[in-house]
Automatic annotation (TrEMBL):
This is Nitrite reductase/ring-hydroxylating ferredoxin subunit. SUPFAM superfamilies: ISP domain (SSF50022). Keywords: 2Fe-2S, Iron, Iron-sulfur, Metal-binding. Pfam families: Rieske (PF00355). The keyword Metal-binding applies. InterPro entries: Rieske_2Fe-2S, Rieske_2Fe-2S_sf. One of its GO terms (molecular function) is metal ion binding. It comes from Sphingomonas leidyi.
Amino acid sequence: MSERLTETPPDVTLGPLDLIPDGKARNFVLEMRAGRFHGFVVRRGETVHGYLDLCAHLALPLSNRLDAYLTPDGSHIQCSWHGALYRIEDGACVGGPCVGAKLRRWPVMVRDGMIVTA
Ligand code: FES
């Protein structure tokens, strides 16, 4: 099994911003020589927020269905397992079993209409 990475190099192009519908989230898996990185990106308008796909509660992947990272109303990130709720802006847990903990940020940005790692 390849190692699970917690960082990516800068300037990796993930794809066009329109890959993610506004207000939705998308999973990304990056295969690198050193191992595999699992993260997800939430789009809000022209802004993107990226996090490692790792719940702050039991360190499980947040979503048990593809790209299902958000509450039905799109207002928060929600873990599929025990319902931890996280703010999209800063990854702070504001509900569920790990209030006060934080998702680990994956620095991403939009440049010339493309989502790239920072
Ligand atoms: S593993 Fe995410 S809430 Fe428990």
